[in-house]
Specification:
The complex is a heterodimer. Chain A contains 4 helices and 28 strands. Chain A is mainly beta. Classes of the chains: A mainly beta, B mainly beta.
Chain lengths: 403, 517
């Protein structure tokens, strides 16, 4: 009986516990050290640069000290996107690189996406240098929306380019490439590094504005490239009137309404012969690049997916031809965007953009934010980081941007 | 199918009890008299069933009610239709056993609910989910309780309680969730007679509760509905169509122990008890994704006292309960492994980081209840008056970044009832009570989120509002002759009204039909 009571006391003692909060997780202090671009040999001034930590829509920003280190005190341990960006002038670019080709300045950007920041460590943030572009990708509409018969309207998708320079730009011969869109990347960033030394981007389709188009885009004007240049507003009240589009990817099968008055986009390469219009995957992945080259695009390498010797052949585009690119990834319902599915090199796009829905059936459009206005002309934000440069809307109209 | 099966069982119990009624007929006053004398029945020690006055008795009840609530928490329904079937029975089984059983079947239809798709209690596990779209819900519950005690002529008697509960909670509007609950507990117990007047009881229990949402579906395929995954106070994520491929289960394992001391004399009876328990609740999603886990400690002390005079039974009950819980929050990463040989891809989550004790809850509750019961020479209660007082103080806290919500209330009520007419067949009862907020605090890190504005801030207004309630009921006992026996039936009409000083009010009306057997 005594042992019985002893056992009861032991059990009760183990159950009795006032909660001890001394082991609770507490805030941490983190340092982020900027690393200057690898192709710059002269020492850069890394002091006074903004470094931001972002998570769940909240951003903390600190300036770097004379050593290029930004210190964040008392922050919540979490998975952060770490980013920095600043502009350099033509002279600074020439001093750093010895290169005279830049006429509009350049951007220094660095991004670490979904970085674990859980302890008081110093984090190195590598940066890249990118030349300011005249022609940028302004919008990607890869979403479907409900038509008046409550069916998915697939044909109102488009890509829009924007001239944010102060000069006319002739887009004749400009190539538009759609990045491969497998759920598991045909080539992950690690694969591109190991097999191609970070020199290519894999495309599933390549279109070209005809070289004879003689299409000149005024400063602040747009190039609207569509799959179906009709007035979709007649079918769906919140769809756009695309009948005045600049170029149309014609559908050879005849299933999609095309407009004979709108010039055709040339199909240069496709992984699927039956798809002659732009295969913009609703909800993503749906990356896009624009590039120029005098080389024969069809002479570029056409590898199979990494590790395979048969199946789909992609077009390996050397990134030195790329003018602008946007990584557009799928928003996974389970865990948000899977950063491991990134397939566009950071030199083209340091991060990614995405729509908020998981199925892309709500008419959401990703479009570039407005950075500033010069003499009435909108300058779109271009930090080579689509996480910062793009936003999502269901109401933004073609050829319009935020004022 | 399950509903019909249990209704069939109830029907059989009802018929069986009617067949035995000629040996165990009771009336309302006598039933109240037996209930008033019980002290051990209010503990979880089944072994002491024989120490309370055990008369073979039972009651079966069918009731329907309608609630209309303006003064409520945001996540509570504005209107509820309820149907409940309840029966209980005390029965001596042979020479050496005493048993008690109860069965409850409930059906509720909720209107205008939002932000909570689970039946998990408030101020507990913070990892709840829900939609911001107001919708209707159906809730079905089945509760079974069985107690068995030995009636040995020895110093030690043994007992066992089994509790079994299942529930189904379905949302009837997009996004349509369906939560299933399985909750059972096993409580072995013993009671040791120190002497003729004193007893010591010990009971321990294991409780497992699992609630699961297997998936969330929509009828309309083109939706842009937000779905909320919460982690504590206003913190969590809300994604459009975030219910796609969603599944989650909450599994609680709880161990507890209680000790009781009872002292009886010719006119007095008292039971003092203490209890402790620890519960650990895991939260699991698809591919074993874990947003976190919840741990809870409960401490309880209770005192039940009876003084039995010639024409009175004095009841004085007091209880103190303290609950403290915390939740660890996990940051997990989805991984995938491709098997080159089979071509299959497997997914699993690994833990990148644990926020220890990020969410905390404390809940203290103390109440005292005195009732004076007037009895007649037939051992029946014919009237009563009483008063209650209650103090409640709770706090929920989230750290990194810090948010805090705290409220404290005192409540008091007076009650009374009396029987009238021939054979005391008509009972009129009433109560009046009030609740008063004595402490309120809300400090959120981000008060601009939808959940902060639509739930927490509105709930804080609810908690900070004082209110009074009053209710009344009329219960008429009558006999119906069945198989040459007079069967004691009753019908009860009850209503309750609550008025808050925010000019919101609640109404409730219910009709109950029952049988004593």
């Amino acid at each position: 009986m005594k042992n019985f009571y002893l056992y009861i006391c032991v059990i009760c003692t183990n159950l009795i516990s006032c909660v001890n909060y001394n082991d609770s997780t507490s805030a941490i202090n983190v340092s982020v050290r900027l690393v200057q671009p690898s192709n710059i040999t002269n020492q850069m001034d890394l002091s006074g640069k903004n470094v931001s930590l972002s998570v769940n829509g909240s951003t903390i920003t600190q300036l770097t000290d004379q050593n290029g280190v930004a210190t964040f005190n008392n922050i919540v341990p979490d998975v952060y996107n770490i980013a920095t960006t600043w502009k350099i002038t033509n002279d600074e670019y020439r001093n750093y690189t010895g290169d005279n080709v830049v006429i509009s300045g350049a951007q220094i950007t660095g991004t670490l996406s979904q970085q674990n920041v859980f302890n008081n460590n110093e984090i190195s943030l590598p940066t890249n240098i990118s030349i300011d572009r005249d022609l940028v990708i302004g919008k990607i509409n890869a979403s479907t929306l409900r038509d008046n018969n409550n069916r998915n309207l697939q044909t109102a998708k488009y890509i829009e380019l924007y001239n944010q320079s102060e000069k006319e730009v002739d887009v004749s011969g400009l190539y538009i490439g759609l990045v491969e869109s497998n759920n598991n990347p045909a080539y992950s960033l690690a694969n591109l590094n190991s097999q191609y030394a970070d020199s290519v981007v894999m495309l599933k389709q390549v279109f070209r504005i005809p070289t004879t188009a003689n299409f000149r885009v005024a400063p602040g004007a747009t190039v609207l490239i569509v799959n179906s240049a009709i007035n979709h507003n007649a079918n769906a009240s919140n769809a756009d009137d695309l009948s005045k589009a600049d170029f149309e990817a014609k559908d050879a099968s005849g299933r999609i309404s095309n407009n004979a008055d709108v010039p055709a986009l040339e199909l240069i390469y496709t992984t699927n012969a039956s798809l002659t219009n732009m295969n913009l995957v609703q909800g993503g992945p749906c990356g896009v690049v624009i590039f120029r080259t005098d080389a024969d695009v069809n002479s570029f390498g056409k590898p199979y997916a990494f590790g395979r010797t048969s199946g789909i052949q992609y077009l390996a585009l050397p990134i030195r031809y790329v003018i602008d690119g946007v990584e557009y990834l799928k928003n996974n319902s389970r865990n948000g965007v899977d950063i491991s599915s990134k397939r566009v090199l950071p030199a083209i796009d340091a991060s990614y953009t995405n729509v908020t829905t998981t199925n892309g059936n709500t008419g959401e459009i990703v479009y570039r934010k407005t950075a500033s206005t010069q003499n009435g002309r909108i300058i779109l934000q271009d930090t080579n980081n689509s996480s910062d440069d793009f936003k999502v809307s269901t109401t933004i109209k073609i050829r319009n941007y935020d004022n | 199918m399950t509903t019909k099966y249990f209704l069939s069982i109830i029907s059989l119990c009802f018929v069986a009890s009617v067949a035995r009624a000629q040996q165990t007929t009771n009336k309302d006053g006598a039933y109240r008299y037996n209930d008033a004398q019980q002290v051990w029945q209010n503990s979880n020690n089944a072994a002491a069933l024989t120490l309370d006055s055990i008369t073979n008795r039972g009651v079966a009840v069918v009731s329907g009610s309608y609630n209309r609530n303006e003064f409520k928490r945001t996540q509570e329904p504005a209107r509820t239709n309820n149907l409940e079937i309840f029966t209980e029975k005390y029965q001596t089984i042979g020479k050496y056993l005493v048993g008690y059983g109860s069965f409850t079947f409930g059906m509720q239809h909720h209107r205008d609910r939002t932000f909570k798709d689970v039946i998990l209690p408030y101020n507990a596990n913070p990892f709840i989910v829900g939609s911001d779209a107001i919708g209707k819900y159906d809730l079905q519950t089945i509760d079974l309780k069985a107690k068995l005690a030995t009636k040995l002529n020895a110093k030690v008697n043994y007992g066992l309680t089994i509790d079994y509960n299942i529930a189904d909670f379905s949302r009837l509007k997009d996004p349509r969730s369906r939560s299933s609950v399985l909750n059972y507990a096993i409580t072995p117990a013993l009671v040791f007679a120190i002497n003729k007047h004193s007893n010591i009881g010990l009971s321990g229990y294991y409780n497992r509760r699992k609630e699961k949402i297997a998936n969330v579906s929509t009828v309309n395929s083109n939706t842009s509905l937000m779905y909320y995954n919460l982690t504590g106070l206003e913190h969590g994520t809300a994604t459009i169509n975030g219910f796609n491929a969603f599944s989650r289960e909450w599994v609680m394992h709880r161990f507890g122990a209680n000790a009781q001391y009872n002292n009886n004399s010719q006119r007095t009876k008292s039971l003092n008890a203490i209890g402790i328990s620890r519960g650990n609740e895991a939260v699991l999603g698809i591919y074993k994704f874990e947003p976190g886990r919840y741990v809870e400690y409960n401490y309880n002390a209770m005192s039940q006292n009876r003084f039995i005079a010639q024409h009175f039974i004095h009841q004085l009950n007091a209880e103190v309960n303290y609950r403290e819980g915390y939740a660890d929050e996990y940051r997990q990463q989805l991984n995938q492994e491709n098997d080159a040989q089979t071509g299959t891809t497997s997914y699993f989550y690994t833990n990148s980081f644990t926020y220890k004790k990020r969410y905390r809850v404390k809940d203290f509750n103390a109440n005292i209840h005195y009732r004076l019961n007037g009895t007649n020479n037939n051992n029946e209660i014919i009237y009563y008056v009483g008063a209650k007082a209650n103090y409640n103080n709770w706090q929920t806290k989230y750290t990194l970044p810090s948010s805090l919500q705290q409220n404290a209330h005192i409540g008091a009520s007076v009650e009374g009832g009396a029987s009238f007419l021939k054979n005391n067949c008509l009972w009129i009862e009433a109560f009046v009570g009030a609740i008063y907020n004595v402490k309120k605090q809300l400090s959120l890190n981000d008060a601009t989120t939808t959940y902060a504005r639509e739930v927490i801030a509105k709930d804080q207004t609810f908690f900070a509002t004082n209110a009074f309630s009053l209710g009344a009921s009329a219960k008429y006992n009558f006999n119906i002759k069945i198989k040459k026996q007079q069967m004691p039936f009753f019908a009860k009409l009850a209503t309750q009204y609550t008025h808050a000083n925010s000019h919101l009010h609640n109404n409730n009306i219910s009709l109950t039909l029952g049988l004593y057997y």
